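Comment thread on ticket #2218

A.B. wrote:
> Attaching the input chain for the structure job we discussed in standup.
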Amino acid sequence: MSLRTEYPFTLPKGYVDDHGTLHRTGVMRLACARDEIEPLRDPRVKENDAYATVIVLARVVTELGTVARVSTKTIESLFVSDFSYLQDLYRIINFQDPSILEAMEPGTPFPMESAEVA
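C.D. wrote:
> Ran it. Output below, let me know if you need it in another format.
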């Protein structure tokens, strides 16, 4: 049995880049301790604790359509529903049972239980 470390996703709305191209599919990897520790050193997090989430997602989202590199600017530019979707996906793959993802249609909201996890 091998450990699955990457999870494909489809955003509910999608990221629109500077050229107007819509990107909906992507890949998120499992987080490591460094992904949660490094953002705490960032001055933007010292100004606003909530910014840590933006940095963490930029680190663990490894693919988003044809975007060359997912950055904090990319994550900041997501629609709120897509940002929330990625937060939920992060919680599910890192802290819950990711097998629930197999029963879902791509881009559909996650069950409410997933949003209640720290």
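A.B. wrote:
> Thanks. Noting for the ticket: Residues 114-118 have pLDDT under 50 and may be disordered.
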